[in-house]
Amino acid sequence: MCIMSQDWKTSVTVAAVIERGGRFLLVEEETRDGLKLNQPAGHLDPGESLVRAVIRETLEETAHSFEPRALLGCYLAGSVTSPTGQHPDGNITYVRFAFTGDLGPLDSGRPLDTGIVRTVWLSADEIRACPERHRSPLVLACVEDYLAGKRFALDALYTHPSALMPGALP
Prior knowledge:
It comes from Cupriavidus cauae. Keywords: Hydrolase, Magnesium. Pfam families: NUDIX. By secondary structure, the chain is an alpha+beta fold. It has a single domain, classed as Nucleoside Triphosphate Pyrophosphohydrolase, CATH 3.90.79. It contains three helices and eight strands; from the N terminus they run E-E-E-E-E-H-E-E-E-H-H. The strands form two sheets. Strands 5-1-7-6 form a four-stranded mixed beta sheet. The chain is globular, with a radius of gyration of 16 Å. The two termini are about 30 Å apart.
């Protein structure tokens, strides 16, 4: 029998792993632990498919459109704790669906999402060299899986229509 803690939560997120010429598109964002690097990523919103969520998050955080071509993988990671050992939001397990695909042109008039300072292009070696700057251990895990050639067809993901209509019965 498994007994779960009352303060345990899951959070579904999406991320875009985008590579051009051996460099990966990352965002530098303000966090409670200072400036951190992450793929364009964010939370799944109510009424949204995973594919729609990664398209939206990439646009909001980079001002580029994004066309997902493949699912890179599904990842789990626990919340990063503060120096006191407690995460302010409780014990959270993040479920990340990472995608790879094509980056569209920059919309130079579009502001970046709140908290995003800038976009940066880094090589895999540059990303490996600064794990303390990563928002999550999943940043490097996704890059390594991309480089290993992991790809899954987008039709591996199924969205029942009830998920697109919050409050609807399945």
